[in-house]
Design a protein that fits this description.
2 domains, 2% strand
Amino acid sequence: MRDALAIGDVPIFDAPARSGRLRAMAARGLGKTRSAAGWVFGLASLVVGLSVLAALPILQFLSLGYLLESSARVARSGRLRDGFIGVRKAARVGGAAVGAAVSLVPLWLVASQARAAALLDPGGPMARGWRFAAVVVWALTCVHLFTAFARDGRLRRFFWPFGGPVWLYRRLRGGGLYSAARDGFWEFVVGLRLPYYFRLGLVGFLGTLVWLVPPSAMLGAVPRFPLLGILGAVSLAVVVPGLPFLQVEYAITGRARALFSPRTVRGRFRRAPWAFAFALAVLLLASIPLYLLKIEMVPREAAWLPSLVFVVFLAPARLLVGWAHARSGRRDRSRHWVFRLLGRLAIVAVALLYVLVVFISQYTSWGGAGSLHEQHAFLLPAPFWGE
C-alpha cells in the first residue's frame, strides 16, 4: 500500500488518510464547541431578555406567555430540553445587542472628548476639531451598524468590519439591498411569535387572577375581619395546588376554559401524585425566597435585576410542572391510594407554608396588602406589576 507504514507485510495505517481523519475530528469538535458556546450564550440572552420584558408594563405578558409555552411543550413531549424555546434566536438578538453596544463605544469616547473640548475651548480650534471628529465617527458608526445588521446581525459582523464596505458596495451595485434586509428582518420578527406569547400570557394572567383575587382579598382583611382572613387562607391553600397545572392545560389546549377545569387536574394527579407533589413543591419553595426582594422598591432603571432573579428561580420550576403533567399522561389508571395520600399530604404541607409566607408578605412588602395579589409563582415573574 502506498504511503503506508507497516511492520513486516501488515500495514498499520495510511498516513494521509489518518491526517485527514484527525482534521475532520478536530473540525467536528470545534464545531460542537462553538455550537455549545452559542447555545449557552443564547440561554443567557434569553434569561436577560425575559427579565427585561418582565420589568416592562404590558410587555410583561410576553414573559409569562413564554414560561407557559415552555411548560406546555415539556408536557407534550415529556422532555425537559423541549422547554428551552428559541435559544438560538435569543443568541442572535443578544449577539446583535452586544455587538451594537460595543460598536458605539468609539462614538461615545469621541463625543465625550468633544463635550470636554467645548467646555475648555468654546468655539476654538480644539472644540471644532473634536466636533468634526465626532461627526465623522458618527457617520462611520452608522454605516458599520447598518452593514452589520443588513448582513445578518450576527455578533461576528460587528467585530470584523473590514469586509463590510466591500459587501455593501457589491450589494448596492447588485440592487435589492433594502428589500432583502426588510424581508429578512420581518421574517425574523414573525418567527418570534410575539402576538401568540402575548395572548397566552394575558389570558393566562386574567384566568389565574380570577382564582387568586377572592382568597387574597379575604386574606388582606385580617386586621378588620379575622374570621374572613382565616377563610381566605384556607381558600388560598385549596386553590394554589391546582393553579400551575391548570395553566399548563390552558397552554396546551389554547382554550381559556381549561383554566377552570379542576376536575381534569385532579384526574391527572391520581395518575402521578408524587410527580405533581414534587413539581408543586419546587415551584412554591422557589418562590418563597423571592419575597425578600419585595421588601423595598427598587429604582425604575434597575427593575429588571430583581426580575432576573425571579426568572432564574421560576423558569426551571415551570419546566418541572410540565414534566409532571407529562408523567400523568403516560399512565391510564390511578396510582394506589397510599401514593395518592402521601402526595396530598406533601401538597397540603407545602401549600400551607406558602400561604403563611404570602400572609406575612403584606407586612414586609413595599406594596402592603396590595402585594397579596402579586403572586409571582403563578402570575408575572416580577416583584412589582407597575415596574
